[in-house]
Specification:
The protein has a five-stranded antiparallel sheet with strand order 4-5-10-6-7. A four-stranded antiparallel sheet has the order 11-12-13-14, sandwiched between helices. A three-stranded parallel sheet has the order 1-3-2, covered by helices on one side. A hairpin with a 2-residue loop joins β6 (132-137) and β7. It has three domains: 5-51, Uridine Diphospho-n-acetylenolpyruvylglucosamine Reductase, domain 2 (2-Layer Sandwich); 56-170, Uridine Diphospho-n-acetylenolpyruvylglucosamine Reductase, domain 3 (2-Layer Sandwich), CATH 3.30.465.10; 176-289, CO dehydrogenase flavoprotein, C-terminal domain (Enolase-like, domain 1). It has helices at residues 12-22, 35-40, 75-79, 82-87, 89-95, 101-104, 109-115, 122-128, 146-149, 227-232, 240-253, 264-289, and strands at 5-8, 26-29, 48-51, 61-63, 66-70, 132-137, 140-145, 150-152, 155-156, 163-170, 176-183, 194-202, 209-217, 224-225. It contains twelve helices and 14 strands.
């Protein structure tokens, strides 16, 4: 492993100052389950690791009309949170399958996002739930929608002197719910061949779609918000025909490649299958809680 310096920052200001001083040669250490492996294998060159685990605002998770998740909150605290279980079930679906139990005790949802893997499990769920990123740097803070945060494999909208502070998820509407699932070759601890997150809002009689958000993972250079497929459902009856139309539209925006985990053709097919299952899963959860 390469030699590097390590600083456990004790405030947000200190972390930003260190990033501003060291630029691209500094990296934020949150969970570290991806970063440490990359550094050890010399796939990521780092002069300084800035550990933010001691900074309070990075470790907060609470609901006060919107869900606030600090960038360092580990997966097990996300899926174990009662408000998340009640209002944001797609986050439970996704964070509970990132690695194994040991990884989930350390890996953070902010780190999963900042790693910017096209196949990350948490990102389609966050997109489907309309999450936004709160980013801070020397010039203040700004917000970026999660669907705009990843700019390429391993690349994000962060400048070298900025860091992700927290994620904010809006309060779900009445008669709404969400769902995430993926296809993997093995039963556990594998990377998604395709992942799909969906959230839907239904009319009070559960017969009509009011709105929907569909997000896709592992079928492009970044996780995708399937906006057209989502908008197709608004005002349509909750029916097999409406759902199939949205599934076909989701397949149209997928831009998969063939690799050792699956062919492009297989991935296109899986987008249709998993989008249907995710939409039906969200609908079922609405009806179960009615």
């Amino acid at each position: 492993m390469q030699a590097f310096e390590y600083v456990a920052a004790e405030s947000l200001g200190e972390a930003i100052s260190l990033l501003d001083k060291h630029g691209n040669q500094a990296r934020i250490l949150s969970g570290g389950t991806d970063l440490i492996v990359q550094v050890r294998e010399n796939r990521r060159q780092v002069d300084l690791l800035v550990d933010i685990k001691k900074i309070p605002e990075f470790n907060e998770i609470f609901y006060n009309g919107s869900l606030q998740i600090g960038a360092s909150v580990p997966c097990y605290q996300v899926y174990g949170n009662e408000d998340v279980q009640r209002l944001f079930p797609a986050l439970v679906d996704s964070t509970s399958i990132i690695g194994g139990v040991q990884i989930q005790s350390r890996a953070s949802i902010g780190g999963n996002l900042c790693n910017a893997s096209p196949a990350a499990d948490s990102i389609p769920a966050l997109i489907a739930l309309g999450a936004s990123c709160v980013i801070q740097g020397p010039n203040g803070d700004r917000k970026v929608a999660v669907e705009e945060f990843c700019t390429g494999p391993g690349q994000t909208a962060l400048s070298s002197n900025e860091l992700l502070v927290k994620l904010v998820l809006p309060k779900p509407a009445n008669n709404s719910s969400s769902f995430y699932l993926r296809f993997i070759p093995r039963n556990e601890m594998d990377i998604a061949v395709v992942g799909v997150g969906a959230s839907v809002e239904l009319s009070s009689d559960h017969k009509t779609f009011v709105s929907a958000r569909i997000a896709l993972g592992a079928v492009a250079a970044t996780p995708l918000f399937a906006e057209e497929a989502s908008n197709i459902l608004a005002g349509q009856p909750v029916s097999e025909e409406s759902i199939q139309t949205a599934c076909s539209a989701a397949q149209d925006v997928a831009r998969p490649i063939s690799d050792m985990r699956g062919s492009a053709e297989q991935r296109k097919h899986l987008v249709g299958v998993l989008t249907k299952r995710a939409l039906n899963g969200a609908i079922s959860r609405i009806k179960e809680t009615a």
